[in-house]
Amino acid sequence: MRIGFTRSLPAGWTGGFEGLNPVTSMSELRDVHPRSIWEGVRARIVDGERMTLAIVEIGPGERVPEHTHDNEQMGFVIEGALTFTIGGETRTLGPGGSWRVGPDVPHHVTAGEEGAVVAECYAPVRGDWMSLPQEDPCPPLWPTS
Question: Can you tell me the distance from the alpha carbon of 131 to that of 6, in angstroms, rounded to the nearest whole number?
Fold first, then answer.
């Protein structure tokens, strides 16, 4: 059985292994500890060798501030709604709405009145998320059963 980590190591990593959770190639979302990305925004993150998958929960009316990163980002809304601005184009997206953000393109998001749960993938791996605070275990907002 191949053993990996829920957090991949960025190139040149010289730190320790504190906070890394060994996992097999399969796991349950409920077993992945959320990490605080911004106030009111948490993600359950699973890294592969070349990409990051995240289920992100955004609280009602919460805003992800404008930012850029060198990762390509793609995602879709699972539940709720959000208003997404990517490089000057703004759209409101509900369940099934999808997006692509190219590397280094400015973008920001505001969740709707009920918040949102989204699935996102990033390539290459989001090594910058390794240092984000890990929250105590709690049930994910999705799936509900």
Answer: 13
